[in-house]
Design goal:
The chain is an alpha+beta fold. It contains eight helices and 19 strands. A seven-stranded mixed beta sheet has the order 11-12-14-13-15-17-16, with helices on both faces. Strands 1-4-10-6-7 form a five-stranded antiparallel beta sheet, with no helix packed on it. Strands 2-3-5-9-8 form a five-stranded mixed beta sheet, with no helix packed on it. A hairpin with a 5-residue loop joins strand 11 and strand 12. Helix 2 crosses helix 8 and helix 6 crosses helix 8. The structure holds zinc ion.
Length: 391
């Protein structure tokens, strides 16, 4: 093979800065753009490397997760974890197959507009799903707004789900897909939701950031999840704040904002809920946590035809992060109100929280597109039981 490999990120979600290539080592780093401080999202493609072994050396902070990079040999359609065997000193080595065309590498397993489109296609024509637009983003993209379940106005309760306030946190999106799959699916949980509950879903709050491949976390001048105070500076958060109280009509009972935590470390490799200073709300998060644990261990009192199909990612309430612990302090929210704090003050709401779903390993089990979706299905079952028992 002649010439250096071609390394680029010219596709949705792409993010890499190529510094130089020396023989078979590429020196690269994540593009932080308007991030305050450091973060760790990256996603790039490699061509012209068939049959070669190349080392990818990151030159900044340690941006490789606990299961190594995620790799795709089909243009980003499917992903596997490469594992840690070839990871060393903030770099990894990869041997490209003799027939390799484009191979992609990422911090984790990307979820972009194309993935959502593919999912929604399965339900085209469904009377239980309406695709709308929350608003146009700053860059002119349409930020999706989905309504699903009992959408004819006659629902008993309403549920709000949001994702990608921090655009790099893609593994949360796979779990969100699992929740939506349950609401629209054939099993009895889906039937129940479609009789009683209307869901409002904003799958990409930071729509531009997700497609552009930004970090999003600690974005300057303002993080999307600190934009719920004063006048919102982003069209999507502003539109959401305006829409939700009206849409709720007093029936919103449950609001969940879906995130991924830090790349690694104690507390960041476990699924957990994050509390606010609102103690009444925290009590409900604790109750929901008990229900989710019960659903996963099969102890739920509500029988399900899907018994035995619980996801492999196990939630333990003991891993929750109440307000006042670790990073979750008033100081962390001094730059503006979060979605959680805002939603927790909406009238009649029973539950407002964010869930943190690790990028790679949760309780020692691999987080993948499939296992995260299975966690989403467990979350949906728990939401049903919570609404039935507590609201
Ligand atoms: Zn986040």
């Amino acid at each position: 093979m002649n010439g250096p490999p071609i390394i680029d990120c010219d596709f949705p979600g792409g993010n890499i800065l190529l510094e130089r290539i020396e023989s078979d080592t590429a020196y690269i780093r994540q593009d932080l753009r308007d991030t305050e401080g450091d973060w760790f999202y990256w996603y790039f493609g490699v061509r012209g490397a068939a049959g070669r072994q190349i080392r990818f050396q990151f030159t900044g902070s340690n941006v490789i997760g606990v299961l190594g990079p995620a790799v795709s040999t089909d243009g980003g359609a499917t992903w596997t974890w490469l594992g840690c065997e070839t990871v060393e000193n903030n770099g990894f080595t990869y041997t490209f197959a003799a027939e390799a065309e484009e191979t992609r590498f990422c911090l984790a397993m990307p979820y972009l507009e194309a993935n959502l489109r593919q999912f929604l296609e399965r339900y085209r024509g469904s009377p239980y799903l309406v695709e709308g637009v929350l608003c146009r983003s700053r860059k002119g993209r349409e930020a999706e707004l989905l309504r699903l379940g009992r959408i004819d106005g006659a629902c008993d309760t309403r549920v709000l789900l949001t994702c990608r306030h921090h655009c790099c946190e893609m593994m949360a999106s796979w779990a969100l897909e699992g929740i939506m799959e349950t609401v629209l699916g054939a099993a009895d949980d889906g039937e129940w939701f479609r009789r009683h509950v209307e869901f409002l879903v904003v799958p990409f709050v930071d729509k531009d950031g997700a497609e552009d491949g930004d970090q999003g976390k600690n974005r300057q001048p303002r993080d999307h999840n600190r934009d719920y105070e004063g006048r919102s500076i982003y069209p999507k958060t502003g539109a959401l704040r305006e829409l939700v109280p009206e849409w709720s009509a007093g029936r919103l009972r449950f609001a969940l904002d879906m995130h991924c935590p830090y790349i690694r470390g104690e507390g960041h490799e476990e699924i957990h809920f994050v509390g606010t200073a609102n103690q009444e709300n925290w009590r409900r998060v604790v109750r929901f946590s008990e229900i989710l644990e019960a659903v996963q261990t099969g102890l739920s009192r509500v029988k399900s035809r899907e018994a035995g199909s619980r996801g492999p990612l196990v939630f333990k309430a003991e891993n929750n992060l109440p307000f006042g612990q670790s990073w979750n302090t008033a100081e962390s929210f001094s730059k503006g109100k979060s979605f959680n704090e805002w939603a927790g003050q909406l009238s009649g709401l029973g539950f407002a929280s964010s869930i943190e779903i690790p990028y790679a390993s949760a309780g020692g089990r691999a987080v993948t597109a499939e296992t995260a979706k299975a966690l989403g299905r467990d979350l949906a079952r728990a939401i049903r039981r919570f609404l039935q028992q507590e609201c």
